[in-house]
UniProtKB/TrEMBL annotation:
<comment type="function">
    <text>One of several proteins that assist in the late maturation steps of the functional core of the 30S ribosomal subunit. Helps release RbfA from mature subunits. May play a role in the assembly of ribosomal proteins into the subunit. Circularly permuted GTPase that catalyzes slow GTP hydrolysis, GTPase activity is stimulated by the 30S ribosomal subunit.</text>
</comment>
<comment type="similarity">
    <text>Belongs to the TRAFAC class YlqF/YawG GTPase family. RsgA subfamily.</text>
</comment>
<keyword id="KW-0699">rRNA-binding</keyword>
<keyword id="KW-0378">Hydrolase</keyword>
<feature type="binding site">
    <location>
        <position position="278"/>
    </location>
    <ligand>
        <name>Zn(2+)</name>
    </ligand>
</feature>
<dbReference type="GO" id="GO:0046872">
    <property type="term" value="F:metal ion binding"/>
</dbReference>
<dbReference type="InterPro" id="IPR027417">
    <property type="entry name" value="P-loop_NTPase"/>
</dbReference>
<feature type="binding site">
    <location>
        <position position="283"/>
    </location>
    <ligand>
        <name>Zn(2+)</name>
    </ligand>
</feature>
<dbReference type="GO" id="GO:0042274">
    <property type="term" value="P:ribosomal small subunit biogenesis"/>
</dbReference>
<feature type="binding site">
    <location>
        <begin position="197"/>
        <end position="205"/>
    </location>
    <ligand>
        <name>GTP</name>
    </ligand>
</feature>
<keyword id="KW-0547">Nucleotide-binding</keyword>
<feature type="binding site">
    <location>
        <position position="292"/>
    </location>
    <ligand>
        <name>Zn(2+)</name>
    </ligand>
</feature>
<comment type="subunit">
    <text>Monomer. Associates with 30S ribosomal subunit, binds 16S rRNA.</text>
</comment>
<protein>
    <recommendedName>
        <fullName>Small ribosomal subunit biogenesis GTPase RsgA</fullName>
        <ecNumber>3.6.1.-</ecNumber>
    </recommendedName>
</protein>
<keyword id="KW-0479">Metal-binding</keyword>
<dbReference type="Pfam" id="PF03193">
    <property type="entry name" value="RsgA_GTPase"/>
</dbReference>
<dbReference type="InterPro" id="IPR004881">
    <property type="entry name" value="Ribosome_biogen_GTPase_RsgA"/>
</dbReference>
Length: 351
């Protein structure tokens, strides 16, 4: 039984009965068809799943992700994954070949550090997308404005964020700050942490600083568009301090975050409150709509129209994905019924 790599936190949050479930390890690296697993104070490579576990995941349409806790079996000195345990948080994106299929990137995360570089083009919409994607109360979110030594850009971006979301705390980050690690360590103590941000936003540089080692290759950002090349080629968990049970998950540069569920999120709570004051429950908030609280707020300058448009766009994105998911399920159900009917007919013909 292991008591590190975040297992103690997992046991507490999931109310796990470790007497009923033994031999628990954690996925710390994914090699497509095999995994590196931390178990019993050792790292084991080339760990594979049992056929039963693989079939179960196929039916669930779930992949194994970095951060998953797994139940293991020792067979002839080889570890075998018997089951993947439920996660309390997750980060995911859609599979490139399937707009409704969810691909897990990392699981069982406590802290999300969002990195936005001051030398890159700033998008308030991208920040809102990040905040919506990690709206679960299980996540602790911190916003890091990297390369803050670019004073004018830092002030420009921080003022935009503060004027729209004054409750959001911003931490200026510069690798030239000698006390930077002291500022970051309290945010991530005794947690599993993930850095999320565009390529070139400074994730790998910060990890190198915290790890006191050049563990992640850092590529120079292209000067033309200030977009970074992907410096991390695969996700991996890096132990920051075994004694403090702090772990970092580094993921490849993410250009977009997909939204899967509507949720009551603080960043749009004012809009959701206004919607409740519209005269009609099915108010479309379009021009000509009578007694619309949203239109009145925009007209009075109490609500920014661009921000409201982004809110509607996010809502529609989730609705479209749910519709496609429902259609896919119906198609799958019809396909299963057709196969069952064919089997029945073939049995009758055989008789």
């Amino acid at each position: 039984m292991i008591n590190d790599y975040g297992l103690a936190v997992y046991e507490k949050k999931m109310k796990l009965d470790t007497n009923a479930i033994s031999h628990i390890g954690r996925i710390i690296e994914n090699h497509s068809f095999s995994f590196t697993v931390f178990f019993d104070n050792h790292q084991y490579t080339n760990v594979k799943m049992s056929g039963k576990c693989a079939n179960k995941l196929i039916l669930m349409k779930r992949n194994v992700a970095i951060g998953d806790f797994v139940q293991l079996s020792l067979e002839q000195e080889n570890l075998i994954i018997l089951d993947v345990l439920p996660e309390y948080t997750k980060i995911s994106k859609k599979v490139s070949s399937n707009k409704t299929r969810e691909q897990l990137l990392a699981t069982n995360i406590d802290v999300v550090l969002i990195t936005i570089a001051c030398d890159q083009k700033f998008s308030l919409g991208l920040l809102e997308r990040y905040l919506l994607a990690f709206s679960s109360s299980e996540f602790k979110i911190h916003l890091l404005l990297t390369k803050s030594d670019l004073k004018e850009r830092y002030l420009f971006i921080s003022e935009i964020i503060a004027s729209t979301y004054p409750e959001l705390k911003i931490l200026p980050v510069s690798i030239f700050d000698k006390n930077l690690d002291e500022k970051l360590l309290p945010l991530i103590k005794s947690s599993t942490v993930v850095f999320i941000g565009a390529s070139g936003s400074g994730k790998s540089s910060l990890i190198n600083l915290l790890m006191r080692d050049n563990l992640q290759k850092v590529n120079e950002v292209k000067k033309k568009d200030h977009k970074g090349k992907h410096t991390t080629t695969n996700s991996v968990i890096l132990p920051l301090s075994i004694n403090d049970s702090s772990y970092l998950i580094d993921t490849p540069g993410i250009k977009s975050i997909d939204l899967w569920d509507k949720s009551d999120n603080d960043i749009f709570s004012d809009i959701q409150t206004l919607e409740k004051h519209c005269k009609y429950n099915n108010c479309t908030h379009q021009k000509g709509q009578t007694d619309c609280a949203i239109l009145q707020a925009i007209e009075l300058g109490l609500l920014d129209k661009k921000r409201f448009d982004r809110y509607i766009s996010f809502q529609k994105e989730v609705d479209r994905r749910k519709e496609r998911t429902f259609e896919d399920r119906m198609k799958n159900n019809r396909a299963i019924k057709n196969r069952q009917n064919l089997k029945r007919k073939s049995k009758k013909n055989f008789k």
